[in-house]
Amino acid sequence: MHKPAVDSCFEVAFWFLDRALDEGEYLQPQKMHRLMFLAQAYFASARHGEKLMPASFVIGPEGPIEPTVFRAMERGRPMVDTTTIDEPVEHVLDSVWRQFGTKSVERLNTAISNHPPVANANENGLGTEISYEEMVDFYVRALSQNLNRKQPQAGYQDTDAPSPDRVLRPKLMRSHTGKAVSVDRWTPRRVD
Fold first, then answer.
1. What is the distance between the alpha carbons of residues 68 and 66, in angstroms, rounded to a whole number?
2. Coil, strand or helix: which one is 64?
3. How does pLDDT run across 4-33, given as a tens digit for each residue?
4. Using 50, 70 and 90 to split pLDDT, how confident is the model at 167?
């Protein structure tokens, strides 16, 4: 297994909190946990199953939560030293924020609860860990294969989960003539 892209979950949690503050918004704790969950899932889809953060998500009363961050932030933002986030990681976080940051907590809860990894863990009750392998399977394989299909893939119900290509849009930069061009970071295909 590869090293996660960030050292702890706090880098991601604080990034979302700071982004919301920069935009003059209050980020509800529930919504922060859903965004962290989606960031982990879409990072895995962009990086062939690699982990964004060393995190395990469990079923909470309303949806997935990261229990370490949940406990540490019960009384507010803790004093934790964090490291800087690399550009590819920031691109994923920014993409997740742009796609899901405007959605209400209720809409995120409803959508994510229908995703098979969460639904499967939810069958076993509160505190059940959501399988990372199931997250990778759903967000990488199932959604990527459904890019242009109108019907969901066999075995998966219709979900409110956009494909990774729709969430992780390429950056727009300018060419030497000033024309807008989309730029993707080259990542070689992972061979297991």
1. 6
2. strand
3. 999 999 999 999 999 999 999 999 999 999
4. low
Using DSSP, state whether 15 is helix, strand or coil.
helix
What stretches of 27-86 show up as alpha helix (H) in DSSP?
Answer: 29-46, 67-72
> Do the domain assignments include residue 190?
no
Instruction: Compute the average pLDDT of residues 41-49.
Output: 86
**49 in Cβ contact with 135 (< 8 Å):** no
Cβ-contact 115, 160 below 8 angstroms: no
**What's the residue count for the chain?**
192
Name residue, tokens 């809409």.
107
Q: Which helix (H) or strand (E) holds 164?
A: helix 164-167
CA 106 – CA 86 distance, rounded (Å)? 31
Nearest residue to 108 via CA among 74, 63, 43: 63
Assigned domain for 85 exists = yes
| Full residue range of the structural domain in which residue 132 is found | 9-183
**Rounded Cα gap, residues 85 and 64, in angstroms:** 23
How many folded domains does the chain comprise?
1
Which residues make Cβ contacts (< 8 Å) with residue 132, sequence separation at least 6?
44, 51, 56
3-state DSSP assignment of residue 178: coil
Q: Which two tokens stand for residue 91?
A: 């691109």
